[in-house]
Amino acid sequence: MDKPTSSSIDTIARTCIAVRLRLLNRVVTNVYDDALRPLGLKVSQLNILVVTAKLGLARPAQVCEILHLDTSTLSRNVERMRAHGWLEIVPNEDARTQPFRLTPRGQQLTENAVPAWAEAQRQAAELLGDEGIALLDNAAKKLGSPRANP
Fold it and tell me: Structure pTM?
Protein backbone atom coordinates (compact mmCIF):
# COMPACT_ATOMS: atom_id res chain seq x y z
CA MET A 1 0.00 0.00 0.00
CA ASP A 2 1.31 3.42 -0.95
CA LYS A 3 2.23 5.82 1.79
CA PRO A 4 0.04 8.98 1.74
CA THR A 5 1.85 12.00 0.42
CA SER A 6 2.47 15.03 2.56
CA SER A 7 0.25 16.96 0.15
CA SER A 8 -2.74 14.62 0.60
CA ILE A 9 -2.33 14.64 4.38
CA ASP A 10 -2.23 18.44 4.35
CA THR A 11 -5.37 18.51 2.21
CA ILE A 12 -7.26 16.25 4.61
CA ALA A 13 -6.03 18.17 7.66
CA ARG A 14 -7.05 21.48 6.11
CA THR A 15 -10.35 20.58 4.43
CA CYS A 16 -12.00 17.57 6.12
CA ILE A 17 -15.64 18.48 6.72
CA ALA A 18 -16.09 15.73 9.32
CA VAL A 19 -13.23 17.06 11.47
CA ARG A 20 -14.60 20.60 11.40
CA LEU A 21 -18.15 19.45 12.17
CA ARG A 22 -16.98 17.30 15.08
CA LEU A 23 -14.97 20.23 16.47
CA LEU A 24 -17.97 22.53 16.14
CA ASN A 25 -20.21 19.91 17.76
CA ARG A 26 -17.85 19.49 20.73
CA VAL A 27 -17.51 23.23 21.29
CA VAL A 28 -21.25 23.94 21.07
CA THR A 29 -22.19 20.87 23.12
CA ASN A 30 -19.79 22.00 25.85
CA VAL A 31 -21.52 25.41 25.97
CA TYR A 32 -24.87 23.71 26.66
CA ASP A 33 -23.45 21.06 29.00
CA ASP A 34 -21.66 23.73 31.05
CA ALA A 35 -24.89 25.70 31.42
CA LEU A 36 -26.93 22.62 32.35
CA ARG A 37 -24.33 21.05 34.67
CA PRO A 38 -25.74 22.69 37.86
CA LEU A 39 -28.98 20.79 37.17
CA GLY A 40 -27.12 17.48 36.76
CA LEU A 41 -28.21 17.41 33.13
CA LYS A 42 -26.51 17.15 29.73
CA VAL A 43 -27.91 18.65 26.55
CA SER A 44 -28.28 15.16 25.03
CA GLN A 45 -30.52 14.24 27.97
CA LEU A 46 -32.46 17.50 27.71
CA ASN A 47 -33.16 16.70 24.04
CA ILE A 48 -34.64 13.34 25.07
CA LEU A 49 -36.72 14.99 27.81
CA VAL A 50 -38.05 17.62 25.38
CA VAL A 51 -38.97 15.08 22.70
CA THR A 52 -40.60 12.90 25.36
CA ALA A 53 -42.56 15.89 26.69
CA LYS A 54 -43.78 16.69 23.18
CA LEU A 55 -44.79 13.08 22.47
CA GLY A 56 -46.39 12.39 25.85
CA LEU A 57 -45.82 8.67 25.46
CA ALA A 58 -42.49 8.15 23.73
CA ARG A 59 -41.71 5.01 21.78
CA PRO A 60 -37.98 4.30 21.48
CA ALA A 61 -38.01 3.87 17.70
CA GLN A 62 -39.80 7.20 17.31
CA VAL A 63 -37.35 9.04 19.58
CA CYS A 64 -34.40 7.45 17.77
CA GLU A 65 -35.80 8.63 14.44
CA ILE A 66 -36.48 12.18 15.64
CA LEU A 67 -33.07 12.63 17.31
CA HIS A 68 -31.10 10.44 14.87
CA LEU A 69 -29.88 8.20 17.71
CA ASP A 70 -29.04 4.52 17.60
CA THR A 71 -31.09 2.32 19.88
CA SER A 72 -28.22 1.45 22.23
CA THR A 73 -27.46 5.15 22.84
CA LEU A 74 -31.11 5.90 23.60
CA SER A 75 -31.43 2.82 25.79
CA ARG A 76 -28.37 3.80 27.85
CA ASN A 77 -29.66 7.34 28.28
CA VAL A 78 -33.19 6.25 29.18
CA GLU A 79 -31.80 3.85 31.78
CA ARG A 80 -29.72 6.61 33.41
CA MET A 81 -32.65 9.02 33.28
CA ARG A 82 -34.92 6.39 34.88
CA ALA A 83 -32.35 5.96 37.67
CA HIS A 84 -32.57 9.74 38.29
CA GLY A 85 -36.36 9.50 38.37
CA TRP A 86 -36.85 11.68 35.27
CA LEU A 87 -38.46 9.03 33.04
CA GLU A 88 -40.65 6.01 33.67
CA ILE A 89 -41.32 2.98 31.52
CA VAL A 90 -44.98 2.46 30.67
CA PRO A 91 -46.00 -1.21 30.74
CA ASN A 92 -46.85 -2.44 27.27
CA GLU A 93 -48.01 -5.75 25.82
CA ASP A 94 -44.82 -5.83 23.73
CA ALA A 95 -41.95 -5.65 26.24
CA ARG A 96 -39.47 -4.97 23.41
CA THR A 97 -40.84 -1.50 22.64
CA GLN A 98 -40.89 -0.21 26.24
CA PRO A 99 -42.54 3.19 25.76
CA PHE A 100 -41.65 5.80 28.34
CA ARG A 101 -42.85 9.16 29.61
CA LEU A 102 -41.71 11.99 31.83
CA THR A 103 -42.23 11.66 35.54
CA PRO A 104 -43.34 14.74 37.48
CA ARG A 105 -39.68 15.10 38.50
CA GLY A 106 -38.62 14.94 34.82
CA GLN A 107 -41.24 17.53 33.90
CA GLN A 108 -40.00 19.84 36.66
CA LEU A 109 -36.37 19.36 35.60
CA THR A 110 -37.26 20.21 32.01
CA GLU A 111 -38.98 23.40 33.14
CA ASN A 112 -36.08 24.27 35.46
CA ALA A 113 -33.63 23.78 32.58
CA VAL A 114 -35.21 26.49 30.40
CA PRO A 115 -33.22 29.46 31.79
CA ALA A 116 -29.90 27.56 31.58
CA TRP A 117 -30.76 26.37 28.07
CA ALA A 118 -31.68 29.94 27.04
CA GLU A 119 -28.32 31.23 28.27
CA ALA A 120 -26.49 28.46 26.42
CA GLN A 121 -28.56 29.22 23.32
CA ARG A 122 -27.53 32.88 23.57
CA GLN A 123 -23.87 31.95 23.96
CA ALA A 124 -23.99 29.51 21.04
CA ALA A 125 -25.74 32.10 18.86
CA GLU A 126 -23.09 34.65 19.75
CA LEU A 127 -20.34 32.15 18.96
CA LEU A 128 -21.83 31.16 15.59
CA GLY A 129 -23.28 34.50 14.52
CA ASP A 130 -26.35 35.00 12.34
CA GLU A 131 -24.57 33.68 9.26
CA GLY A 132 -23.44 30.51 11.03
CA ILE A 133 -26.93 29.84 12.37
CA ALA A 134 -28.44 30.38 8.92
CA LEU A 135 -25.95 27.91 7.44
CA LEU A 136 -26.82 25.33 10.11
CA ASP A 137 -30.55 25.80 9.52
CA ASN A 138 -30.06 25.42 5.77
CA ALA A 139 -27.94 22.28 6.18
CA ALA A 140 -30.49 20.77 8.58
CA LYS A 141 -33.30 21.43 6.07
CA LYS A 142 -31.33 19.71 3.33
CA LEU A 143 -30.92 16.67 5.59
CA GLY A 144 -34.63 16.66 6.35
CA SER A 145 -34.04 17.33 10.04
CA PRO A 146 -37.33 17.83 11.86
CA ARG A 147 -35.58 20.04 14.47
CA ALA A 148 -36.91 17.65 17.12
CA ASN A 149 -40.52 18.40 16.18
CA PRO A 150 -42.43 15.10 16.29
Answer: 0.85
